[in-house]
Amino acid sequence: MRGSPFGHVRLLAPVLAAVLLLMAAPHSLRAVAVSTPAMQAGASGDARADKKPVASVVWTDHLKVETYPSETAAAPGGKVSLIVKIEPVARMHVYAPGADDYRIVTLTVAAQRFVRLAPTRYPASEMYLFEPLNERIPAYQKPFTLVQEVTLDSQPEARAALRATPSLTLTGTLDYQACDDRICFKPVSVPLTWTVAMQTGRPSGAGGTGTR
């Protein structure tokens, strides 16, 4: 761009775009808040499990993150899978298990009484060639899904406590460090929430993957 009177304007274009983006969204996380059927069922007392969960979506500068529970309602002794669908933006990747020298994408669900957490299920990754260092690293470049299965306690105390509330809200974080084909960006922590209505009948099914 040497000698071009528009060179500085072109260089400033990404900066101006970033400023406009920050003006439109004060935070780096841009969320779409959706009232899920589980929340609606809990509020009305109609905890029908045949309703389909509605996803909540969060965009960061590197990923699209879509979350929803596999079931809209659950009962003590039942299982629910917390689904996190992740779609890296173009040219971006995050690190998978096995990338020991890097920050692996991690789903952490906060511990809660009467709720048991299974290990997070990861899909198969691919080997990514990071050319600046000539390294091959397990990573995700294409859309992938993480699944966290939770089981509700079935002991009498748990049944009484869980059935006394219309809905159960679980919180967690998605932690990752994204890189493109040249540089790695600062680590990001994305807050996540899932809500399911509480049933008074039989437990929900095995939880499943709930993926779409």
Structural features:
212 residues, alpha+beta, Immunoglobulin-like, four-stranded mixed β-sheet, 3 helices, 16% helix, disordered N terminus
Average pLDDT for all residues:
80
Annotated CATH architecture: Sandwich
Tally of individual helices: 3
The first-to-last residue Cα distance is 47 Å
Helix and strand sequence: HEHEEEEEEEEEEHEEE
CATH top level is Mainly Beta
- Kindly give the count of domains: 1
Strand content: 35-45%
Shape: elongated
From the helix content, strand content and strand pairing, which structural class follows? alpha+beta
Q: Give me the CATH fold name.
A: Immunoglobulin-like
CATH superfamily placement: Thiol:disulfide interchange protein DsbD, N-terminal domain
